[in-house]
Design brief:
Layout lengths: L3 H27 L9 H5 L2 H9 L4 H12 L2 E3 L5 E3 L2 H7 L7 E2 L1 H4 L14 H8 L8 H5 L2 H20 L6 H18 L13 H19 L2 H8 L2 H7 L2 H25 L11 H6 L10 H32 L1 H16 L7 H4 L3 H13 L9 E2 L5 E3 L2 E3 L5 E2 L2 H5 L19 H8 L15 H18 L15
Parallel strand pairs: 2-7
Antiparallel strand pairs: 1-2, 3-4, 5-6
Helix pairs in contact: 3-11, 9-10, 9-22, 10-16, 11-14, 13-14, 14-16, 16-17, 16-19, 16-22, 17-19
Protein name: Cytochrome P450
Keywords: Heme, Iron, Membrane, Metal-binding, Monooxygenase, Oxidoreductase, Transmembrane, Transmembrane helix
GO molecular function: heme binding; iron ion binding; monooxygenase activity; oxidoreductase activity, acting on paired donors, with incorporation or reduction of molecular oxygen
C-alpha cells in the first residue's frame, strides 16, 4: 500500500507537469501569436530571454538580431511579444496617432509606476507629460544657454588642465559629470558640482552602469527590486560600498532639495524670484493631488534627470573618442568653427551651430551609434489590430523595435560600425539614412528632453574642440568593461 504522503507528492508533481505541458502546448500551437516565426523555446517561455538578459549580461538584443537574420523581419521573441526589423514600420509603430500603451513587463521592472516616462497606460502618460513638455521646449532650452555654457566652460577648463599635465582621465566620468550638472541645474535649478570632483564623481557613473543589470534581473525575478526598495536609505548607506555611498549621497541631496522646493512652492507666501523647476510645473498643473505627492514628484525628478545625463554622457564620450582618434575629423571641425568665428558669427548661439554641416554631421553620427535607448521599446495598441505586410498583429500585443539595431543595419547605413560623419554630408545618402534614424525615438513617447540634449551636444562639441587646441595633447583610449 502506498504511503499517503508519497501519493500526495506524486499527485502534486503530475499536476505541475501537466500544467507546464498544457501551457507550453497552448503557447506553441493555440496562442494568437503561434503563427509568427521565431525559436520555439522563445515562444514557450520567457526564461529564454531571461538567459540572455541575466546569464549572458544583457545580450538578448543581439540575439534578436541573429533571430531576424534566420526568421525574417517579424519574429516572436517571447510567449507574448513580437519584434520587427524594418525601418518602414518604425513610423507606423512609433507615431502620434491613436492610443499606445507601454509593455508593463519591461517598465514595471524599475519598480516605479510614478515617473512620467514609466507610465504604461496611454491616458496616464499623456496627463503627466503635458505639464512637463513646455519646460523642455526648444525655446525654454534656448533661454538657458548661459547656464549650459557655464558648465561646458568648466568642463573644457578641467580637461585642458588634465591634458596639459599629461594625466589620464576617465572620459566617461567627465562627460557624465557635465551632463549631470547641466541636467540638475536645468531641472532643479541647482547643480551638484560633479565637475568639481577630482574624479568627476565616477561612483555615480558606476552605479548607473550597474542599474542595467539590476533592471534585467528584476524583469524576470520581480521581488528583487521590491526587496531593495523596501530597505531604508540610511540602512543601505551603512552596508554599501564607497561607490554606492556616493550615489546614495547624491540621491539624498536631490531628495532633500526636492522636498525644500515643494515646501516653498506650497507655502502660503512663496518667495518671489525663484527659478521655475519641473516641480513648479507639476504642482501648478491640473494633475490630481495623487500625482502631486512627494514620492511621485521626486521620481519624476530622478527619472528625467537620470535619463538626461546617462544618454548625453554616453553619446558625448563616444563622439569625443572618435573625434580625437581621427585627426581628419578633428581638423575639419576646427576649420569649420574657425571659419564661423572669422565671419563674426556667435558660435555660442544654437541657431548658428545648427548651420555648421561638419559639426551637425558629427553629432548625428554620434547619436546614431549611441541612441537614447539601447534596448527595444515595445508598444501596445490596446484597441486595434496592427498590420505589417501580410501579418495581422492582434490588438493588445506588445510589439517592439530596437533603435540601435536599425542604426547598425548595413542596408540602412553602409559600413555601420564605422564612425563616418560624411554619410550625413551627401544629400542623397542623408535622405536615405534619415528614414532609419531615430535617436530620440518618435511618436507619443518621444524623448521629452531631446531639445536639451541637442543643445548640450552643440555647445559641448563646439567649445571642447576649440578649447583644447594648442593646450596639450589629448589622446583617446578605450577600456572595455566586462
Amino acid at each position: 500500500m502506498d504511503n499517503p504522503n508519497t501519493s500526495l507528492w506524486r499527485t502534486v508533481a503530475v499536476a505541475i507537469l501537466l500544467y507546464f505541458a498544457t501551457r507550453t502546448f497552448y503557447r506553441l500551437f493555440l496562442h494568437p501569436l503561434a503563427r509568427f516565426p521565431g525559436p520555439k523555446l522563445a515562444a514557450a517561455t520567457r526564461w529564454y530571454e531571461g538567459y540572455y538578459d541575466v546569464i549572458e549580461n544583457g545580450q538578448y538584443t543581439f540575439k534578436i538580431e541573429e533571430m531576424h537574420k534566420q526568421y525574417g523581419p517579424i519574429i516572436r521573441i517571447s510567449p507574448y511579444e513580437l519584434h520587427v526589423s524594418d525601418p518602414v514600420f518604425f513610423d507606423v509603430l512609433y507615431c502620434q496617432e491613436g492610443r499606445w500603451n507601454r509593455y508593463p513587463f519591461a517598465w514595471d521592472a524599475w519598480g516605479a509606476e510614478g515617473p512620467t516616462i514609466h507610465a504604461t497606460q496611454h491616458d496616464l502618460h499623456k496627463a503627466r507629460r503635458q505639464p512637463l513638455a513646455p519646460f523642455f521646449s526648444k525655446a525654454k532650452v534656448s533661454s538657458r544657454q548661459d547656464m549650459i555654457s557655464r558648465h561646458v566652460s568648466k568642463f573644457c577648463d578641467r580637461l585642458s588642465n588634465i591634458a596639459e599635465a599629461g594625466k589620464m582621465v576617465n572620459l566617461g566620468a567627465a562627460t557624465t559629470a557635465l551632463a549631470r550638472d547641466v541636467a540638475f541645474d536645468f531641472i532643479l535649478g541647482k547643480s551638484y558640482n560633479s565637475l568639481d570632483s577630482e574624479n568627476f564623481d565616477v561612483a555615480v557613473l558606476h552605479a548607473a552602469q550597474g542599474a542595467g543589470s539590476l533592471w534585467r534581473l528584476s524583469k524576470h525575478i520581480g521581488y528583487v527590486l521590491f526587496l531593495l526598495q523596501a530597505m531604508p536609505l540610511d540602512w543601505a548607506m551603512k552596508i554599501a560600498d564607497d561607490d554606492m555611498k556616493t550615489f546614495f549621497a547624491h540621491m539624498k541631496a536631490a531628495m532633500n532639495d526636492t522636498k525644500d522646493i515643494m515646501d516653498e512652492a506650497l507655502s502660503p507666501s512663496p518667495p518671489e524670484g525663484v527659478k521655475r523647476t519641473i516641480i513648479h510645473e507639476i504642482l501648478d498643473s491640473k494633475l490630481s493631488s495623487h500625482d502631486k505627492y512627494f514620492k511621485r514628484v521626486f521620481q519624476d525628478v530622478t527619472s528625467v534627470s537620470g535619463a538626461g545625463f546617462e544618454t548625453i554622457g554616453g553619446a558625448l564620450r563616444l563622439i569625443f573618442f572618435h573625434v580625437f582618434s581621427n585627426s581628419a575629423i578633428l581638423q575639419k571641425l576646427r576649420e569649420e568653427l574657425d571659419s564661423a568665428k572669422a565671419k563674426h558669427l556667435d558660435v555660442n548661439e544654437l541657431k548658428v551651430l545648427e548651420q555648421l554641416p561638419n559639426l551637425t554631421s558629427t553629432i548625428k553620427e554620434g547619436l546614431r551609434l549611441s541612441p537614447g535607448i539601447g534596448t527595444r521599446m515595445a508598444r501596445i495598441a490596446p484597441d486595434r489590430d496592427l498590420f505589417y505586410k501580410e501579418w495581422r498583429i492582434p490588438a493588445g500585443t506588445p510589439v517592439g523595435m530596437t533603435t540601435i539595431l536599425m542604426h547598425m543595419d548595413e542596408n540602412n547605413f553602409p559600413n555601420p560600425r564605422s564612425f563616418s560623419p560624411e554619410r550625413w554630408m551627401d544629400n542623397n545618402r542623408q535622405k536615405n539614412a534619415e528614414k532609419a534614424y531615430a535617436p530620440f525615438s518618435k511618436g507619443t513617447r518621444m524623448c521629452l528632453g531631446m531639445h536639451a540634449k541637442a543643445e548640450n551636444f552643440e555647445f559641448e562639441s563646439d567649445q571642447f574642440v576649440i578649447g583644447t587646441k594648442g593646450k596639450g595633447l589629448l589622446e583617446a583610449h578605450v577600456n572595455l568593461r566586462e
